[in-house]
From TrEMBL:
Main location: cytoplasm
Protein's name in the database: Recombinase XerC
GO cellular component, one term: cytoplasm
Subcellular location: Cytoplasm
InterPro entries, A to Z: CB, DNA_brk_join_enz, Integrase-like_cat_sf, Integrase_catalytic, Integrase_recombinase_N, Integrase_SAM-like_N, Tyrosine_recombinase_XerCD
Organism, scientific name: Caryophanon latum
Domain Core-binding (CB), residue spans: 2-106
GO molecular function terms attached to this record: DNA binding
Keywords: Cell cycle, Cell division, Chromosome partition, Cytoplasm, DNA integration, DNA recombination, DNA-binding
Length: 312
């Protein structure tokens, strides 16, 4: 905490306690804001940027941010793109961070006399179709857990990720008490709660895992999934398991937990799930986010065109 000025630490407290942001999101905001303040210091004092992370911002004067212009912000984004090699998505995240930060300073705390981010535009992001596994690939991945260490646990986790569209952090945060019958209580982004229903396949996989589950050795609520040491599983632990299973399945490219979420959502949509139900299951704040799964397969497009009556 001492590495940053008080107004920054106050903002981080506001993010977590009032806005309900996760610690992971807070860390991202922390990195982006600290980088901007160091960049602003370096440019104002004509310092070289090669050692920007060595710049001490503990005594940064918040009032100087009242003089920040829109051009200053775009100069920072240009530095991020040209010198740091940040992608459009990364720069868009920095824009969102700066907007939130300056809004807090101007509106909530009234520490600055104007908000330079009012007209700040984010980089345009290319629209990409989600990358996902086909049904036979998903089955191959599940089968690859057979015979491995922690077979029942890994099979169960992959089954839940593929059937329920969980984020990996949501999976790791599940407790035994999260499941009541077939009702699963999930705490998603922004501490928002949603309820989904586990299929018989998910419940059967969990029952098989519970027979061999390593007992929990920590404090607090018992997690649904534990590591071999009896601790709560982490995102890194799930990713490591998935990499090993991917290799066992013989896939040429790696598979991330988020790719499994894309797979789950796409397969549910192709099976007839309506967009609003899918939005709830995935925990999306906006239906616009869910609509990326409404893409149509090339084979389906080809089939429609082939059936044009003018072809006869």
């Amino acid at each position: 905490m001492n590495a940053y000025p008080k107004f920054m630490n106050d903002f981080f407290i506001y993010l977590t306690t009032i806005k309900g942001k996760s610690n992971r999101t807070r860390k991202e905001y922390e990195y982006d804001i600290a980088l901007f303040l160091r960049f602003h210091t370096a440019t104002a004092e004509h310092m070289k940027l090669e050692h920007i992370h060595d710049i001490d911002i503990r005594n940064f004067n918040v009032q100087t941010l009242s003089d920040v212009t829109l051009e200053d912000l775009y100069l920072f984004l240009a530095y991020c793109e040209e010198t740091r090699g940040n992608s459009a998505a990364s720069r868009a995240r920095k824009v969102a961070t700066l907007r939130s930060f300056f809004h807090y300073l101007y509106t909530k705390r009234k520490l600055i006399t104007n908000n330079p981010t009012d007209d700040l535009e984010a980089p345009k992001l290319p629209k990409r179709r989600p990358v996902y596994l086909k049904i036979d690939e998903a089955k191959t991945l599940l089968h690859a857990t057979k015979g491995n260490t922690h077979e029942q646990r890994n099979f169960c986790m992959l089954t839940w990720l593929l059937h329920l569209g969980l984020r990996v952090t949501e999976l790791c945060d599940l407790n035994v008490s999260s499941l009541q019958g077939d009702r699963l209580r999930i705490i998603g982004k922004g501490n928002k709660e949603r309820i989904v229903f586990c299929s018989d396949v998910c419940l059967q996989a969990l029952a098989a895992y519970n027979d061999v589950k390593v007992p929990y050795k920590g404090d607090g609520e018992e997690p649904l999934f534990t590591s071999q040491k009896g601790t709560r599983l982490t995102r890194q632990g799930v990713s490591k398991m998935l990499r090993a299973t991917t290799e066992q399945a013989g896939f040429a490219k790696g598979i991330t937990p988020h790719k499994l979420r894309h797979t789950s959502a796409t397969l549910m949509y192709q099976a007839g799930a309506d967009i609003r139900s899918l939005q709830h299951i995935l925990g999306h704040a906006s239906v616009a986010t869910t609509q990326i799964y409404t893409h149509v397969e090339d084979d389906a497009i080809r089939d429609v065109l082939a059936k044009n009556p003018l072809n006869e």
